Records
---
Amino acid sequence: MKKIVIPLFMLCVSINAQNPSARAIIERVDKNMSADSRVFTSKMVIHNRRNTRTIESKSWSMGEKKSYTEYLSPPREQGTKMLKLDDQLWIFSPSTDRIIQISGHMLRQSVMGSDLSYEDMMEDPHLLNHYTGKVDREEKLEDRNCWIITLSASTPDVAYQTQKVWIDKDRFIPLRKELYAKSGVLLKKMELSDVKQIQGRWFPKKILFKDVLKDGDGTEFQIMEIEFNTQIPDYIFSKASLKK
Amino acid sequence: MIRFLLKGILRDKQRSLLPVMIVSIGVMLTVFLFCWLRGILNDSIELNARFNAGHVKIMSASYAKNVDQIPNDLALTNVDSLMIKLKQAFPEMKWGQRIHFAGLIDVPDSNGETRIQGPAVGFGIDLLSGDPSETGRFNLKKSLRRGRLPFHSGEILMSEEFSNKLKVNPGDTLTLIGSTMNGSMAMYNYAVCGTIAFGTGPMDQGSVIVDIEDVRDALDMNNSAGEIVGYLPDNYYDEEKIGQVVTRFNKLFPPSKNEYEPVIITLRQQNNLGKMMDQIKGLGAFAVFIFVLSMSLVLWNAGLLGGLRRYTEFGTRLAIGEDYSHIYKTMIYESILIGIIGSFIGTSIGLLGSLYLQYHGLDLSSMMKNATILMPSVFHTRITSAAFFIGFIPGLISTVIGTMLSGIGIYKRKTAQLFKELEA
């Protein structure tokens, strides 16, 4: 009897090790992609229908609720600052010296004419907190073995009801995402590349966003520098910091 | 004989005064109604032309396809050089650059925080270059309710209704939140210099008017414009002349695959205006036809009455030996003279009244407070060449036919019975 049970148990463990549950995969992805805090400088190259523009910014975020971004260039956008606390966003425009609050559906509008919404740009959600997953199948994506996981929203306040994610089996990094609305309509596509090891985690430094409902060739979002789990002073996430 | 009849008409007031008065009144009403309907049609067309459509509008090909969405990202660029080309190629036309935009008006409180917001539709037009054309087209001086027109950059005009809704007064500062040509969020401060009321529902609900250079600054549209509107010199939409302009434009800018190349659209091709124009014209013609027909019946009846009223006179004339056909002919000649005199007087009075209202108009704004389509609130008449002869149809023809019918009775009268009739 022992001769049968032990090998059977070993086989089950081995299969499980090769095919972890969707939850386990998402947990590993969250460990790579999200952090308690992040500070990064980024470059957005927006390929509009008519022209290409580059916008540089520096962002600070803490958990899922607090985020702050300051635009560094071009001159027209320089000094524009955005503060997001929960589901409220304040934008400071230096030319008007005004802070304007936007909320609700406005948060899903395009940032600076890019393919990213304010939520895309400023949120760092732990997938596990908002989605439940199901491994659909495996597929090779540019020589990388991937799981294709369908994420379904488990909380009502997410921007995308369903996500289809190609996750690198070795590095636990999403390499491709398709983001769907509640109606099932495909809203956005993301291609994540230039995966580097930073502070002991894999992280894609380049993301190509494509809003499929918008003309143009998409927006390249490139991380120039990034620091995880760094100390960020509290005043950064206050309205007072917008006018500083 | 005509001279004799004319003297008779002028001297015998009993015979001529009433018929001439009836013909004159009928013709005057016909001419005035005709000019009134023409005026309503023209006012509606001109209102749309002045505020929005122009007699022609030039846009980029892709902007034209999505014009209802106000897609300023598809606006015309290098408009300075385009304007030079247009002015050289079409010296008879008047051109104006415009940026139509939509956004939020954000009004701050004393701490600079948002007090109230409202959605706005804006017009960026030339207000500060010194050329008064656009100010005139928007009738801004007469539409001003409070404050003054913009003198300086950074000033904005708001509709009176919108300013009341947002509790904004001249002198206050507000922020326009919109979208730049590149899709970025645009925020721009303006000082309210005045409020306006056009008297048309859609324009008065949430519109703002700003100098086009300020809009360019706000929306990052340097040397760009959403639309270039063109007007014929006398501000009268003449389809034939516009057709010639379009043909010449298409030779100058042949259709190409470049979606940003300029294309020309006529007023008729915009906002179902062509259909509306045809419908109004058709309805107008029908209304005029009905009125002319009814006036014809009235004047025909007047002719009949005129003939019957002179029953005794004709009897006497027959009794003293005048020929039936001579009497009948003189009756008809008389009615022709009365018709001409009445039509002339009626047309003159009708045209004078129409001429007055063509320049001064009739203000019906109080009756159009809740109008939701772009309709004028001050109606003008419009005198066209047809107005000079339309009154002669009922005035002359109907009077003569009426007389001809009533005159047939003359032939039925027996000479033998005439004295008995006269004695009675």
---
Amino acid sequence: MREHLTREQIAALLDEPGAISDGLAHLDECEDCASEFEGMSRMRMALSGLPDLSPPEGEWDAVRKRLPHRIAAPRPRSLWATPLAAAAVILLFLGGLAVGRMIAPASQDGRNPGLEVAAGGVAFAGTHDARFDDYLQTVGRLKELRDAGSLGPTPGENPALAAERLTRLDALIDATRESLRMAPADPALNDFLFDVVDERESLAGQLDQTLRQASMEY
Amino acid sequence: MTAVQLVGEHERLEVTEAQLIEAARAGDQRAMGDLYAAHAGRVFSVVRRVVGDEHLAEDVSQDAWIRAFEKLHLFRGDAAFGTWMHRLAVNAAVNRLRSLGRRSKLESSPDLKLPIQEPDESGLNQRILSKALDALPDGYRTVLVLHDVEGLTHEEIGQKLKIAAGTSKSQLHKARARMRALLDPQSRPNEAGNHA
């Protein structure tokens, strides 16, 4: 007597044939499980082929009506910007260069299809592969550096610390933008910029709220 | 660089996406409209599929575009505008689900079953597939859409959802199993059984 595979096990076999011990051998012997595997493969294929949907009618009009008074102007550069920007540019440059060196010699003629190494950054044409994962890890390390104190202590509810971190985030944003000028198509740098901008906005909101509360108390 | 064709009353002008972005940054709403037109379908599709609800998707999609134009002065990756916008749309959808703290639809509708669908020549019926996606719990649907529809890796999904890559993988397997149960509930039991 032999147990059927569960649907979850079959789902795992779709991506990793070795995910379940003797899973493929079982599919060879068991018609029911093989049929389920086939059905799940069809489902995955159909999902990957789903066409783009049409946006709702009138969406652009609705967006446009909310636009005019909401477009933000670029922020002025802060006094912190220059030294910190330079440091961050170097950091990003080295990260990109290291990955570029690691993966550039992949083909015999020295050119790596789907990969362009730009000054200070890496732009990927084909993304979802191991090289891209390596690169994401490198950028992940940049994020860790950011979170590990390079921007100062976590502010909590201390307005002074929050203001200091805000200034440093501004510098990091400027630095990342500088890097993007060198590698404008780099998705990881775009991601990084967005994360920092998100954090900056969130922190600015918190700081604003804290200062308002403080002013009301007095 | 993507070229976008603008057709005016008496002119036909070809501009690059970089030029559109530059103009949009300066507040040119026509340029914004052209950027919107070039990417709106892609943005709405990912938002709609992640949130699993038409009305919610309309709201989130609009917010994503507003946010994009507000932040356009920060965007320097001209050739990657589509990637940037896609990421922004996914984040907007995921954050909205998180902020709503929505309970899963299946938890509140345990008897939900879809009719069995035989695959036609073009594969599974897209309408039924979309309906089944909407019926999944939010967490399952998000991972399934990001992986099987949008092609993200588990590492990328993990970063977006702030979960481990292994958790994403496990959620994906559960989501696929639940989808199959919805699409073809009578084909086999959920748990392993014994061969006769």
